[in-house]
């Protein structure tokens, strides 16, 4: 846990990379959710 806190708040590069990772996970989960909703039978 201390490693992640140091990575996020120790330098701006780590914080930026964490933001990019979480945004990517969010976008991919949204696309997957839309695919599941659209492919479901009415």
According to DSSP, the number of beta strands is 0
The end-to-end distance, rounded to whole angstroms, is: 45 Å
User: What summary fits the major beta sheet?
Assistant: none
Q: Determine the strand fraction and express it as a percent band.
A: under 5%
Structural class: mainly alpha
SSE run: HH
Mean pLDDT: 86
State the share of residues found in helices, binned by percent: over 70%
- Spatial shape: rod-shaped
Helical segment tally? 2
The value of Rg in angstroms is 16 Å
Provide structural commentary.
With 42 residues, the protein is mainly α. The chain has helices at residues 2-10, 12-39. The radius of gyration is 16 Å and the shape is rod-shaped.
List keywords for this structure.
42 residues, mainly alpha
Q: What's the quick description here?
A:
The chain is mainly α.
List the helices and strands and how they pair.
Blueprint: H1 2-10, H2 12-39
């Amino acid at each position: 846990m201390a490693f992640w806190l140091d990575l996020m708040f120790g330098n701006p590069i780590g914080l930026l990379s964490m933001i990019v990772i979480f945004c990517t996970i969010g976008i991919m989960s949204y696309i997957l959710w839309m695919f599941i909703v659209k492919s479901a039978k009415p």
